[in-house]
Design goal:
about 90 residues, four-stranded antiparallel β-sheet, PpiC/parvulin_rotamase, PPIase_PpiC_CS, Peptidyl-prolyl cis-trans isomerase C
Length: about 90
Amino acid sequence: MASTAHALHILVKHQEQAQDIIKQLNKGAKFADLARKHSTCPSGKKGGDLGEFRKGQMVPQFDKAVFSGKVLEPIGPVKTKFGYHIIKVLYRT
């Protein structure tokens, strides 16, 4: 079982906006560009890059999505106390 992951994410306030971003990604939009444009998280300036983190380091809903979802495909929207996340897992180790 993976103990670390490297992920990108886009954080928005509304589920509808998150779903729209997923549609754009599915049509070929670049994750980093959309993160810079829409994410309310400071990581948005870095294309949504959260770097590598350990299992249990993030809020439970986010953690579960990262460690159980597909790698290199958009996951979400995932609701947490911060808003709605679109997540892209780069790798798990």
